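Issue: copy button drops trailing tokens. Both records pasted manually instead:
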Amino acid sequence: MAYKADVNRKAVKEKIEKVKEVTHELKRYKTVALISLEKLPDALFQSLRRKIREDGGKVFVLKKPVITRVLHSNAQLAARLPDCDRPVALALTNWSPYNLNKFLKDNKKRRPAKINEIAISEIIVHEGETDLPPGPALSELKAGGVNAQIKGGKIIVAKESVIAKKGEKITVAKAKALQTLGVKPFETRARLVFGFDGEYIYASDLLDIGDTLNTDLQASIRDAFNISVNAGYPTSLNAEHLLQEAFRQALNAAVNGELYTIVTMDQLLLSALRQGKALSEVQAKESAPAEQKTEEKNEG
């Protein structure tokens, strides 16, 4: 026998009203999104929630039965019900999915390393002074791989120290040493599961393309331009360049072939003048010795 909820119970009534409320709110905003709450510090989540609200948006943290019924109100959103199997928040905003994703990425915070966590990049402690007095902290730092010494009544990092290489696991000693120095080598941020603009659903990996999109497009345009120019294939973008190159080649051919035109006349005349001047100088050098010999003969 199938279970049927008692709609007269207070808890059930509250869920029904919440579904109606949020479903109504969906229609008031341009973008509907799910934000993952996995491993997201509550302080960061509340900060994001406040900023979205200040811009006129709303963020709901709903129980799974409520959020699934809300998504069921739209056929495209209903296809994303499996995303509700993990902790998520429902965000409603007039930002585009791309701008919402960028907002989440920009609002990140540094956090300490955790024991057994894998370093996503090389973790380095740079050379310099600390505010730590001599004591047990010195042993903790050395145990964690920090080149620490005592100088001037303080603990210093005498030499740049690599605490963990990329892909290396953070040990208890290394995590403690980093925490002692106040080093926070990891970043934490909210991650967008998907954004829906009323027409299309955008997964976060698609929205992340925007990080390099402008650079990639510029590189593609530059490569396509060079290929079309080298192939001599005219387009609206390269037509001016091709015409300039064709004019330059035609001008060189006309000058080298001594073809007199309105365009080449000045260059050909200058060339003739230079050649005439050069010939005059050669003749002057050749005639100088003969004149000198004639003078010497006359004097003899």
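Record 2 (pasted manually too):
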Amino acid sequence: MSGVVDENLVRKLLAAQFPRWAGRTVERWPSGGTVNAMFRLGDDLVVRLPLTKGGAKDVTLEQEWLPRIVSRLPTPIPEVLGAGLPADGYPWPWSVYRWLPGDNPRPDALGRPVPLAEDLAGFVLAMRRIPTKQAPKAHRGGPLKTLDAETRSAIEQLRAIPEENVDCDAVLAVWENALGMPEPSAAPVWLHADLMPGNLLLDGDRLSAVIDFGCMGAGDPACDLFPAWNLLPSSGREVFREALSVDDATWNRGRARTLSQALIALPYYRKTNESMAGNARHVIQAVLDEMS
């Protein structure tokens, strides 16, 4: 889009569509995300405006499905309080949510990773138990081979960036080994499909909320194993796997999916988004350490 997404736009949209909130303070909220702008609305609300057409699809998905799954989950998730429409030159749907307090976890600053691993596994299990009838396809829920070309391209890009010090032969071996594993034979399950640290909130050392469900839908259960490598140390990783009863093939697919995402993200974000690039570096090292 060509217009500016800022506090003034939010105030205009609120005044026209949700006048009951128009008098509240509006403040841009810093975020490591790349497809949405977030604005605090007073103390207890937040406005989410997509910055891309793809982000707009995510908002629409949340508006439809979050109210339908919330009662089945043990962890707080975003509550849609207002579904906004395109207006004032802004071309996409947008949402007002209740603000969820908490801090994003950092892999290097987890006080008690084992209880956190248990919390994460409880959330993933609850998602899997939701009936998948009429569920959309998850953004990352398809066969592993659909990621092959982009993953290999990213590895070749990283070969040309020696300062990143990625062992490209080693990560390629991990990837090719996973491609040889059987694809899931069981039915697809409900997934969050984007369990990055930026989409998790903690109260102290415990999971207090999961946010950003724009990738959710039915797909390969391996897609919700990402925290095993993007967040948890080996002790928490083992607890997470055991709680979810993950077989070897699913574990290998989950590791490969997480690695693929990191390999693609690192050359793309290394100079523009330190949060995303930093976590990508962490994932690559965590995967190689586990395989050594």
